[in-house]
Amino acid sequence: MSELHAYALLVLVGFLPSEIWRVLGLVAARGIVDESELFMWVRAVAIAVLAGVIAKIILFPPGTLASVPLVIRLCAIVGGFAAFLFVRRSVLTGVVAGEVVLTVGALAYGI
């Protein structure tokens, strides 16, 4: 029974507070035009932050990622960027493709 309480606590404390803000964001964003200057700026900032985090993780890897050679990590960035450009500038596709290249490279290297 205590496991059920742990899951309920996880949903109550971890999921619901962030989900409320997501729903409010959806409601607030209903009137925003996708091609507006503000929306384009917010999208550019979000992509820049994501690129910065990925670059930091690739160049200064934490934990087990440090054992993967830099060449494989850089190939993952190139593969992710190529997928991003190839699939109509889809950030999700670029991140997933980069992760696949990194995983396959690490497995081929024997990690």
Structure characterization notes:
There is one protein chain. With 111 residues, the protein is mainly alpha-helical. It has 2 domains: 1-31, no CATH class; 34-109, no CATH class. 77% of the residues lie in helices and 0% in strands. Helix 3 (70-86) runs antiparallel to helix 4. The radius of gyration is 19 Å and the shape is flat.
Question: What's this, in brief?
Answer:
With 111 residues, the protein is mainly alpha-helical.
Helix/strand-derived category reads: mainly alpha
Let me know the largest β-sheet: none
General shape: flat
What distance separates the N and C termini? Answer: 39 Å
Number of domains: 2
Give, in order, the helices and strands.
HHHH
Q: Which spans of ≥5 residues are poorly predicted at pLDDT below 50? A: none
